[in-house]
Amino acid sequence: MKLKIVLAILGIGVLTSCGGDEKKQTIKSKKPVKKAVVKKSPEQKEVKKEKLVVTIDMNNKGVGPIKSMTLSNTINKSMADKGQQIFKNKCSACHRIDRKFIGPNPTGIMERRSPEWIMNMIMNPSEMVQKDPIAKELLAQFNGAPMADQNISEEESRAILEYFRTLK
């Protein structure tokens, strides 16, 4: 008798789980999603990226030890190479150059953020996500995954910044 009850319950479970509500079924394509280009005017174009809001603020210096800095017009190749190696060792677990990953893609960051903001974010991520509006926005956009504090020195941060200058 107990065996019949168990079999009946299993049978009902199988039958109810096999039916499908088509609204719940989704097909995920491995093909990249094309970005929609919306024409605002002949001079302006806006590219919508996967629900990502891109804030451009070159005046925000962020929260941290870097208050002011001046960059030369030329890129210091040896410093950029050192920065690339540091980035590869400490940052590439979460950041990719060619695409969004766990964290944002740093390509073109020099056109969106001030050098001070970038260095402060690299050196002081915990305080930045608590106090800086752009860092808070990024935290929300990247599913609440905070940037890990890698204890990067000012010298290392400056080298990473120089590497970022090469990413366009």
Give me the CATH fold name of the domain at 77-164: Cytochrome Bc1 Complex, Chain D, domain 2
Going by CATH, the homologous superfamily of the domain at 77-164 would be: Cytochrome c-like domain
Shape: globular
CATH class of the domain at 77-164: Mainly Alpha
As a whole number of angstroms, the C-alpha radius of gyration is: 24 Å
Which class best fits the helix and strand makeup? Answer: mainly alpha
Major sheet: size, sense and barrel closure? Answer: 2 strands, antiparallel
Low-confidence stretches: 14-49
Order of helices and strands: HEEHHHHH
The overall strand count is 2
- What's the rounded overall pLDDT mean? 80
**CATH-level-2 architecture of the domain at 77-164:** Orthogonal Bundle
The proportion of strand residues reads under 5%
In helices, the fraction of residues equals 25-40%
Termini separation? 73 Å
Number of helices: 6
Biggest sheet, spatial arrangement of strands: 1-2
Structural overview:
The chain is mainly α and 168 residues long. It has a domain at 77-164: Cytochrome c-like domain (Cytochrome Bc1 Complex, Chain D, domain 2), CATH 1.10.760.10. The protein is built from six helices and two strands; from the N terminus they run αββααααα. The protein has helices spanning 2-18, 77-90, 115-123, 125-131, 133-141, 154-164; strands spanning 37-39, 45-47. The protein has a two-stranded antiparallel ribbon with strand order 1-2. Strand 1 (37-39) and strand 2 (45-47) form a beta hairpin. Helix 4 packs across helix 5 (133-141).
